[in-house]
Each structure stands twice: as C-alpha cells, then as structure tokens.
Write a structure and sequence with these properties.
single chain, binds 5-O-phosphono-beta-D-ribofuranosylamine, eight-stranded mixed beta sheet, Rossmann fold
C-alpha cells in the first residue's frame, strides 16, 4: 500500500478528491496533508476526512526557502510518504527539496503544459485566443511546471469566458484527472492519459 502525502496552500479541492479516491482496492492511502498556510481551508477538510495534517507557515522564514523546507520536512518525513502530491501548493520548491523526492512527486497545473507554466494560466489562454485550455499532471523536476506529463485533460474555451468561468470548467476536470493519474502512478504506470 503506497503512502501519499499531499501539499496544499488553499481550499484543497484537489486534495479532497485525491483523499476520497484512495479507498477500497486503491493501491494507496493518504498519510498526511500539509500546508504552508495554517489558515488553509483544506486543513479542516483533511481533518474532517480523518487525514493527519500539518501546517508550517512559510512567512516567518521570509526569503529563506531552504529554512522553510527544512521545517516542512519534519512532519513530512515523519509520515514516511512514498508519493508526494502537490495540489494547489503555491510555493516554489528548491532544487534540493525536489531532488529529494524526484520521480515520486506529482503536481497538477491548470494549463495544457508546456503551454503557460507559472501563474494566471486561464487569463493568458483567453488573451491568446486559444480554442482549448485544460490541466496537466506532471512529475515535478527542479524547473517549474516542466516535468514529464503523466496526464492531461482539455476543455474548449467558450465565447465570453472569463478567467473565472474557464478556471471553474478546468477545475472540474482536475478533480477527475488527478485521481486517475495517482491510481495508475501508485502501481508504476506512467504512460500518459488524456481525458
Ligand atoms: C486550482 O486552480 C489548481 O489548478 C491549482 O490550484 C488551484 C486551487 O486548487 N493547482 P485546490 O482547490 O486548492 O485543489
């Protein structure tokens, strides 16, 4: 049974779907939900789902990313995860942290990578007049939003779409894509899936 730790920064809607998927004959179970924001709404949602939680506020560490990560590693390593899922986690991780988990750390990004790494992905797709948008689950490498793609899901950009309306349409697909990718990844299947 693979042990999965999930890192969040906010509401944790992706985390909830991942946790809810890990039941029955699923080859993995959630062992920790950790956040860089003690006020993250997802922490209460994880606790309500009986998943252990941890919060390490990144703000006291200021620009010292390595010091924050050293603090985060304490509860994280204590949970002895086999797989790390970044789910709405909004901190950039140092190469040293990434290399520690490389090959078993996944992230979901709200664009059809390699298009639109970074922030404001939906506004950028609309501004570019793209016919499609979507989300990607990828293995995390030291370069931001750049690792091998494990899964993608696409949606049409509708006339009149705003960043919010497009984000909501994509989020619904994120909630299907991430659990599907994790279930396969947990048994060593890394051939990409497309929804
Ligand atoms: C979502 O837009 C997702 O694409 C990105 O973080 C945002 C919030 O996700 N990864 P969640 O509701 O906290 O899972």
């Amino acid at each position: 049974m693979k042990r999965v730790a999930i890192l969040i920064s906010g509401g944790g809607s992706n985390m909830v779907r991942l946790v809810e998927s890990m039941t029955g004959d699923h080859p993995a179970r959630p062992v920790l939900v950790a956040s860089n924001d003690p006020a993250a709404g997802g922490l209460a949602r994880a606790a309500a789902l009986s998943v252990p939680t941890a919060a390490v506020d990144h703000k006291p560490f200021g620009p010292d990313r390595a010091a924050f990560e050293t603090a985060l590693l304490q509860p994280l390593l204590a949970a002895e995860p086999d797989i790390l899922c970044l789910a709405g986690f909004m901190r950039i991780l140092t190469p040293a942290f990434v290399e520690r988990f490389e090959g078993r750390m996944l992230n979901i990004h709200p664009s059809l990578l390699p298009a639109y790494p970074g922030l404001h992905t939906h506004a950028r797709a609309i501004a570019a007049g793209d016919a499609f948008a979507g989300c990607s689950v990828h293995l995390v490498t030291p370069k931001l939003d750049d690792g091998p793609i494990l899964g993608q899901a696409r949606v049409p950009v509708e006339p009149g779409d705003t960043a919010d309306s497009l984000a909501a349409r994509v989020l619904a697909l994120e909630h299907r894509l991430y659990p599907a990718v994790l279930r396969r990844f947990a048994v060593g299947k890394t051939a990409r899936i497309d929804l």
